[in-house]
Amino acid sequence: MTPSTSSAITLNINGEKYTLPVDHRTTLLDALREHLDLTGSKKGCDLGQCGACTVLLDGRRAVSCLQLAVAAEGRAITTIEGVADGERLHPVQQAFLDLDGYQCGYCTPGQICSAIAVIEEHAAGWPSAATDDVRPEAGVPALSAEEIRERMSGNLCRCGAYVSIVQAVAQAAEVQGKEAVA
Amino acid sequence: MTTTTGITSVAGAIGSGRTRVEGRDKVTGAARYAGEVPFAELAHGWLMLSTVARGRIRSVEDGPVLAMPGVLTVLHHGNAPRVDIDYMGMLGRPNPIVGIFQHDRVPFAGWPVALVVAETSEQAREAAEALVVEYDVEPHDVAFRAGRQDAYTPESTPMVQPETEKGDVEAQLDASAVVVDAEYTTPEEHHNPMEPHAATARWDGGRLDVVDSNQGSSWVANELAQLFSLDPASVRVRSEHVGGAFGSKGLSPHQVAAVMATTVLQRPVRVVLTRRQMFSLIGYRSPTAQRIRLGADADGRLRALDHQAQSLTSTVYEFIESSAVLGRVLYDADAHHTLHRLVRLDVPTPTWMRAPGEAPGSFALESALDELAEKCGVDPIALRVRNEPETGPVSGLPFSSRNVLACFEEGARRFGWADRDPRPGLRREGRWLIGTGTAAATYPSGVGPSTAAVTAEPDGTFTVRINAADVGTGARTAMLLVAADTLGVDPDSVRVRIADSDIGPAMIAGGSMGTRSWAWAVTIAANELRERLALGGGIPPEGITARSDTAEAIGALSKKERHSFGAQFAEVAVDVDTGEVRVRRLLGIYAAGTIVNPLTARSQFIGGMIWGLSMALHEEAVRDQVSGGHVGPDLAGYHFAAHADVPLIEADWVDDPVPGDPVAIKGIGEIGIVGVAAAIANAVWHATGVRHRELPIRPDRVLRAADEARRRATDGIPVGMEEGGTRGGPAEGGARGGGAEGGAPGA
Amino acid sequence: MREFGYERAFDVSGAVALIGSDPDARFLGGGTNLVDLMKTGVERPALLVDVRELPLDRIELERDGGLRIGATVTNSDLAAHPDVRRHYPALAQAVLAGASGQLRNMATVGGNLLQRTRCGYFTDISRPCNRRSPGSGCPAVGGEHHNHAILGASEHCIATHPSDMAVALAAFDAVISYETADGPGELPIDGFYPPVGDTPHIETTLPPGALITGVTLPPAPVAARSRYRKVRERASFAFAIGSIAGALDVEDGVVREVRLALGAVASMPWRARAAERLLVGGPASAEAFAAAADAELAAAEALPDNGYKVTLMRNLIVAVLTELTEEVSR
What we know:
The complex is a heterotrimer of chains A (about 180), B (about 750) and C (about 325). Chain A has five helices and five strands; from the N terminus they run E-E-H-E-E-E-H-H-H-H.
């Protein structure tokens, strides 16, 4: 029996339900961009190598270019279009705007989604490759520039806006007042 | 109808930091780039590229593919619409790669051989993968190396004069107390803007409408009109938001393919390049092999400067990577020679890439200056002070303004240069050896003709129309500030329309010429409008519009050496046991005329410096000699700096008035990268005592060089023969002057 | 990418049954190294069986001090887990050194073990590659190979295994559990990746259709003092050109126990047993570390452009063992 190569699926995106037929080959990124007119998530490499397509899946950051749409059914998807509170920008968005944390803007939605998750991951006590001592007894290091740089490294920026992005993430973390759990 | 009397005069918009006009759209995902504008009945095109490096297409087996689900058409040399590539465009003759599907010849691996168009992108991709193309393969040659016998000196072009010469270089070298003679190489580098090239084309009411990502929509529209033999007025190209360009976004095969397909299918067609396709289709920076000979008196005064640069081009088009030009600006010498040589290979044609010429050229020249400083025992900054020219070293023309020494002075102060011990290999922090380095930067401040229109609207606001492209530079915001400043109004009352060829011709966003060119046109129009409004009277419903065209004024510019300048400073840490190099600090100080928007200008300078960092440590495309194509052409195989590579970088500027210049803006798009790789390489030498003359300074190269240096220290081989190879020994008069090269690193 | 069927499995036996013996079927975990290979045409499955929702997402500390890690545990959860960080810090460090935060959130332990090589010839279907297309040749030997293997390679393939996680697992004697239609099975990581020989296309010793269900780390008190060091061509988000997982127990200046595994030098994570044998019972000194490194690397076969790896690995072995010795004495 030849299996069906497409499915009707329902995706939960930014709190709304979208029902659509998808070719199984369609990635979440292409479903967003080509089928749902949610073009904020960007396609920089389509191979999981640049981070421009970063979205949040069940609150965790993921690259939507390697996520098949059909496999995303049942998960809570948050895209750049869904991170602001109505007209009020998310603190990370506001910091990127104020500190010029971007130039061409193409990697920006991915950087912002990633940064939102970085602040959460750090608050949850996750160590990183920049963390000297990963043992739980050592506690969680402060979200220093070095920690931010390592944690944000999955988001490439060719314009070279890294310096102001790191400052923006630090500022947003401070504004949000997220403290790392010990 | 409103009256003009209510305008409040506001001064000083230029020079005040302002967040980007389109910033909110960019941080919310609302900004739509070329592949994101929706059209009903949109079809998707997928390019198929040659897998052989040279030969002829024997057959394109499109039959089976046409029967695949959703496939609408397959275009190839056997059936594609004919185009005319025999025309003269704004920047010269077109690269023949835009004449896709016109013949069966394959001049390099990655040449477009077919376009598959289907209802969905998934169907188009699979059909393109399934398409069988047969080739008659011919032997290819893709081997770029120094000293190829078939290298030739190209003819002069309006863009590049291949050779300049004054005095007798050999005689001056013979008379020099100190000589540096060294070879430097830089690899093939790729622009890799984050947004892949994309175009959607459609016929709309008899006009060709192309939504594109480019550096100049007038430019692309004009090229498309000529290519397809259309009335220029019937072509409209828009590029509202552009996700980076860096020299790569002009006319490329994807727009041509989209136009061909929409013409055949009579429905909108989008063609988006994959990241891998970008490595073959949009140009790149040629690898270079450069030889520099410097001869100086014992105190470092230059007697001879000889810079010979070899780069490559394709078999179908000539492009010169003008690496040797910056010596014509930076340093004078009694004898002065600069030369470019080309090798024709079976590879894609290189093109402009951020600071074309100056970027690889400055790595060589500014490294050589550092080697000279070392040999003379002179501080690298003092050496540059000693060789500061009064006028253009080759042209003899006056500089419009030249404040490079002020950059060094301010940079040295902020970087703490005065405390530097010049001896290499002395500073250690844990496993890291620490060093600092510096280099000069320069880039031409050019200008191109532009038209602009500024309208006073009946509601008291102003509309500026200038066909700029905002490739991430903040062009929209800069033009807003320029217009507000000239009109003397609140910037919030000004809106700027850009990136639409219907606005009228303007300079491209390229060559650091955009802001200077557009600002000039906007200033003239705004000034005229201001004068007209000063006469009083009402504003009619259609507003009052003043227009400008700078072509004549540009033609009347006096002949001068017009350039931006800068000084780069770097601190690095090197682990010679693992070969890792980390940049710990970068500081760039620039003299670049009037800075329009300090907020975005700083971003752009720093972005350029990060390019320099990437060039120094990461970037290198690898070509497989057997297949003639790339190995790992994607963002995992081709590295540029990630967040973790980039330390706190500072960029600032000194006052740089340009007396008598009508705009006094110089352009800042490229100068940030110039000299950075040399400053980093010089810092690596200072840290380890080993010169790196081959980019990028990868861990394997650091390890090999350290091994080599250790062996030399053990075996007592004379100094001056490090990685990359200083040419010649004392017997050939090459490495005279000796000088300590430092001990074995880490020993 | 050709069209394919998609099924979501909710229990292990169901997943195994769905795959059956279909050579064109693949398990889909995080997709971070399957979907990309499908896009480049290296993988062309006809059916994907999504195993991400299988109940294999737990990490449990076993009574004997070992650790049982479910196959669908994400890399992020593995690296963040207190027991992993406490008892096997090098494993947490290895995982954190790999990929990016996004990819670690998606990638699973099972999938990480099954990563394919990143050799640029393997991932380009227009080129020959014995691993992808048996018998077609290995262009890396005479071509671009500066990041290829120096240990255990053959003329048929010089590709390296790209996983960081697997290097730490190799150091800690991980045992890989799997399920087939015929029932469960186990493989020590030592035998999980077969020698390259003339069959580089055979990448694991898993039986056909097997689903990895988990990884068990035997108790290893020495692992509490362990480190992972990774060298790469940019500071983050890049594959290793050389890496090392090391653990050391020293008493009175004498090495009591040592674990060493090397990454990016072979088609598998390379357990440095020769070095370990030399070290145990000997002095914890720089000279002994260097001698052990030399013994391990004596078998290295370098090509023109990857010989630096011998120096690099030697230096890394000495550096990491020295750091661990200093840690012991603190």
